[in-house]
Every structure is written in structure tokens, then in C-alpha cells.
Amino acid sequence: MRSLLVQSFSSPCQQVMGIGRNRKLLMERLVFPASCIRAVCLHTNVSRVLITGALGQLGFGLARILRDQLGHHNVVMSDIHKASECVRDSGPYVYLNVQDQGLLARTCVEQDIGCIVHYSAILSADAEANTQRALDINIIGLHNVLEVSRQLNLKLFVPSTIGSFGPESPRNPTPDLAVQRPKSLYGICKIHAELMGEYYHTKFGLDFRCLRYPGVISEHKPGGGTTDYALKMFHDAVTNQVNICCLKLDTRLPMIYIDDLHHATAQYLQMPNNLLKKRTYNIGALDFSPEELALEIQKENPSFQVTYKPDYRQRIAETWPEKLDFSNAMNDWGYRPKYTLETACQKILRSLKSKLNDP
Ligand SMILES: NC(=O)C1=CN([C@@H]2O[C@H](COP(=O)(O)OP(=O)(O)OC[C@H]3O[C@@H](n4cnc5c(N)ncnc54)[C@H](O)[C@@H]3O)[C@@H](O)[C@H]2O)C=CC1
Ligand SMILES: CC(=O)[C@H](N)C(=O)O
């Protein structure tokens, strides 16, 4: 019984970690409740997932989903800052600067890592303001992660972005395969990541996986991205009711609600290699302009007002796609986003309001 339980637990993990096909076939015939599977996970010697840059907008939410699937202790969050108590209480957390290849390799060995989710990055607006830092983290950090993954035979997920396309790409819709001549430094770093990952896959057999994320909307505070204008709108809507938007009112961009993004990422990580026809997929969901977002927010907050004062971020945004074609992700591995602009806005605003009232 114990060995069957151990094998059944491995079903989700095994796909993330790339365990053998025969065990997978056996496991597919065994069905156990999730609680039982999770309990066994904690006591089994499986390799684990490391998330770099995990204290940003996306790391914690993905860690939560992967921990539900793989077991609490099998997902290690890492970043260069001190983690909050809430993060430290949630599971393993280590300091890790991705510019230090030795420390990265050592962390992977000591923590028994089988898969890296590489979230460390300098986003588009911040990269324009700090070229050297962006090159150090987005290029050198990526090279370190690729090399360590190759040397230790790890699975590697690196997100790309709508920013990897440029003004010469078809913009509505933008397919997976298109001309990619990005004009922002961030976009140049990300197309480099896509191409290097695919090169390592072809040349060294690295299990490299990449999704081109749209702008992510969530309750998170705005950070260094161009699409973070939307996060700022949500926060301003629940605090001072006025917002100055850094983009023109009709700048349409592809976006996604954070829960859809995390579920898609976790699902893609678990896909068996034989179902993947590509290593890099677009995942779209929503597309809207600042004006359309403001109107949606006004349905919940009628007194909310926006003034449009485009700055350097407008020049970045207008070279990006308006809408992504994500039919390959739907056909090859069953990607299905759930949230509409309306349902995502309601969820974000209600949650921000309740936090404001009960911090
Ligand atoms: N949030 C979004 O809308 C989108 C994000 N992405 C990609 O998803 C990934 C995660 O994005 P977010 O969480 O939003 O970014 P974020 O900017 O919120 O977080 C990035 C994290 O990287 C960490 N970091 C910076 N330098 C580091 C270093 N030397 N070593 C280790 N960590 C370091 C930062 O401390 C930060 O916590 C990034 O690769 C980003 O390019 C792609 C498209 C859209
Ligand atoms: C779309 C992205 O990659 C990011 N949110 C940014 O705006 O830089």
C-alpha cells in the first residue's frame, strides 16, 4: 500500500519533475484523494521546485498553487530581499541572487531542486531607467539559470512577455510565430531568453518551457512594468478616487487576471513533453484600453476619475501587441482562461476594499 501511495503521489510531481514514463502509466491507473497524495508528498524524497524572484507580483501566488499540488516543503521561494513573516511561515524561503552562479548551483544541490521557475527580472519601465541593472539581471541572471539547469539536468521555466514583440509584429492578433524586433531593452532581453532557452533545449536536451505572459492584473501594488498602469488604477480607485494614467486612453494591450496566469503556468509545467509542440507559447486572455478599464472600475466606483498624461511608457506600450493569438496553447495543452474583465475587476476591487477596511 505504501509503495502505491508513493507512486500515486508522484503523478502530479512526476510530470513537473520529469520522472519516467512507465511510472506515469502505472500512476494514471491509480486514483487517490488529494489530501492523501499531499500527505505522502511530505514524506517522500522527491526533487523540488525553486522559484527565483519570488517576492515580486507573481511568485507567492504560484508558490501557493504548486505547494498545493506538490506538498508544502517541495516549493522553495527565493529572492534578494528579506521575506515577510507571512512568506516565511508559508514554506521554505532562501536568499538567492541570480547573478551569483555559484550560489545558484549550491542552492539547487543543497535544496534538492528538480525544476526552476525563473521569475527574477527587471520589468519594462524600470529597465529603461536602469540599463546596466536590467542587463545584469535579465541577461547574466538568465545565463546563470540556463547553465545551472543544464549542469544539474533541471527542468526550467522562464516567462517571456508581450514585450518580446515589436512594432513590426502583427498586432491584432499576434501569433506565436511572428517577426520579433522589440524596441524596449526588456523586450530585447526576453527574446534573448526565448531563443537561448530553445537553443539549450535543442543542443543539450534541456526541458526548457516558456510562456509569453500578457500584462498581469491583480491586487498587487504597481511595480516597474508598463502594464502596471492598471494596478495603479485599481489602487487609486479604492483610495483617493483619482488616477493619473501614464498611457493614452485608447492604448489597447493584452492582459490576464493573476489566477488564470498561475493556473496556466502550473498546468503547463505539468504537461508531458510529448504533448508540447513548441517550447514557447502565447497565453492571452483579455485585451482592453485604459479607458475601458476605467469604465469597468466606474461600475463599482462611480466617482472614480482618470486623467491621461502619457509619458515614456506610452512609447513602450505602442510597440506591443493589442491582442494575442493563443490558439496553440488551447489546442496543444488545453489552456483555458476563465476571468473576463468584469469578473476580474470585481474580484480585485472587492478584495482591495476589504483589505483597506480591515488591514
Ligand atoms: N507582472 C507582469 O505583468 C508580467 C511579468 N512577466 C514576467 O514574470 C516574471 C515575474 O514578474 P513579476 O513578479 O511581476 O516581477 P516583479 O518585478 O514584481 O518581481 C521580480 C523579482 O525579482 C527580484 N530580483 C531582482 N533582482 C534579483 C536578483 N539579482 N536575484 C534574484 N531576484 C532578483 C526582485 O526582488 C523582485 O522580487 C518576470 O520574469 C517578468 O518579466 C511577464 C509578463 C507580464
Ligand atoms: C507585460 C510585461 O511584461 C510587464 N508587465 C511590463 O509591463 O513590463
From TrEMBL:
Q: What is its EC number?
A: 1.1.1.103
> Molecular function (GO) terms listed?
L-threonine 3-dehydrogenase activity
User: Which positions fall inside the NAD-dependent epimerase/dehydratase domain?
Assistant: 49-284
BP-aspect Gene Ontology terms: L-threonine catabolic process
Known InterPro entries for this protein?
Answer: Epimerase_deHydtase (IPR001509), NAD(P)-bd_dom_sf (IPR036291), NAD(P)_epim/dehydratase (IPR051225)
Q: Which pathway?
A: Amino-acid degradation; L-threonine degradation via oxydo-reductase pathway; glycine from L-threonine: step 1/2
Q: Which family does it belong to?
A: Belongs to the NAD(P)-dependent epimerase/dehydratase family.
What is this protein identified as?
L-threonine 3-dehydrogenase, mitochondrial
Q: Which organism is it from?
A: Biomphalaria glabrata
